Each structure stands twice: as structure tokens, then as C-alpha cells.
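Thread: sanity check for a docking pose with coenzyme A

Original post by kr_44:
Hi all, I'm comparing my docking run against an independent structure prediction. Below are the sequence and the ligand SMILES. Could someone generate the full complex and paste the C-alpha cells? I mainly care about where the ligand ends up relative to the chain.
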Amino acid sequence: MDLSSFRLIRLSDDHNILPFDCGDTDLSDFIINDSKDYLKKLLAVTYLLEHGGITAAFFCVSNDRIAIEDMDSKSQFYKWIMNKMPDGKKYKSYPAVKIGRMAVDSSMQGQRLGTILLDYIKEFFITNNKTGCMFITVDAYSQSLKFYEQNGFKYLCPAKDKEKNVTTRLMYYDLRELTV
Ligand SMILES: CC(C)(COP(=O)(O)OP(=O)(O)OC[C@H]1O[C@@H](n2cnc3c(N)ncnc32)[C@H](O)[C@@H]1OP(=O)(O)O)[C@@H](O)C(=O)NCCC(=O)NCCS
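Reply from moderator J.T.:
Ran it for you. Here is the predicted complex with coenzyme A included:
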């Protein structure tokens, strides 16, 4: 995909947000009505990809962590982290960044823009990182599970998700896959 006519910008308070509709009311409303408020309250920073007079896609990110309480039990957490780091038992949580929301305008879905943005986020948090950040997390909607799976995301606690009969699944991407 030729991205030369696309512009990626960090949302600022005075930015004029271009029209956006991804087919999901909650996600589409967020960018128009709530994203600036989240920015002001330091809850999340939103990035917009603009093209041809519309917002082609957006995502917002916040600090997060993966902690013992995200799992069914302490032993499950330690087994999971020690698989990744033999000395993983040192801490009860590990730093992450959460993709709070992410969506592509309906007119541009299925053209790999979502994948390009995920690659950008992965790169962004391992290049000259200002803070330690080991994982990307996302509460993925059921219709987007395959998208995240195809981009290397894994389920943190499949058994717990099933029990709760939830509408979103907690998934993560291990950023150290890109650094070793
Ligand atoms: C989910 C979303 C962000 C994906 O972005 P996209 O640019 O359309 O996705 P891509 O073109 O990069 O797709 C990559 C892969 O994910 C899969 N995929 C993407 N969207 C999918 C969907 N809705 N259902 C099933 N699989 C999907 C495709 O199989 C694709 O692989 P392929 O090209 O080999 O077939 C976008 O479709 C969207 O905004 N959907 C509506 C809102 C939403 O669900 N947001 C996620 C909230 S957590």
C-alpha cells in the first residue's frame, strides 16, 4: 500500500478531527467526542492516520502492566513469566502499553492499514524507549481476535476469559520478540 498521501499525527487539543466511521458506534464516537478529553486528563494519547479528507484509522495508547491478578493463580503467573524469563519471579507485575482503542474507517478496512499501525506501535515502543515496556496489551473485541492473532498477539488467560463469558479477550504481544 502506498502511504505517501497518508499523514500520521498525534492528536492535540486544537486539532480539527476529520470524519471517521468504522461501523462500530462506540469506537467511532470515541474519536469524535472523547479522545481530546482523554488527552487532557492524561488517560490516553490518540494517534490519527489521515487521508483524503477523512480519518482513515486511529489508535490510542496508555500505560499498563501485566500482573499476577490478571491470571487465575500466582503459580500460573509465575509459570507464564518464567517461560519468558528464568528470573521472572522477581516481580509481581511487568510493564506494558495498552492499545485502548484502535479502528480503521469502513472504507479502508481489509487493506492492511491495521497491520501497518500495529507494526508502527511495536516499533514505537522498542525504539529509543523512554521507559521500560515489555508487552503490548489489548482488550480485543470478538470480531477482531483473528486480526490480533495474525499479528502475533496471544491470549493471556484463555480459561479465565471463558469462565467470565466476556465480550472482549485480553491479549498481549511480547515486544522482546523484536529485540532478540
Ligand atoms: C479490526 C481492524 C482494526 C483491522 O484492521 P484492517 O486494516 O481492516 O486489517 P488488516 O487488513 O491489516 O487485516 C490483517 C488480517 O486480519 C484479519 N482481519 C482483519 N479484520 C478482520 C475481521 N473483521 N474479521 C476477521 N478477520 C479480520 C484478516 O484475516 C487479515 O488477514 P489477511 O489479509 O491475511 O486476510 C479493522 O477492521 C476495524 O477497525 N474493525 C472495526 C473496529 C474493531 O473491531 N476494532 C478493534 C477493536 S479491539
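Residues 7-178 form a domain with the Aminopeptidase fold (CATH 3.40.630.30). Hope that helps with the comparison, let us know if your pose agrees.
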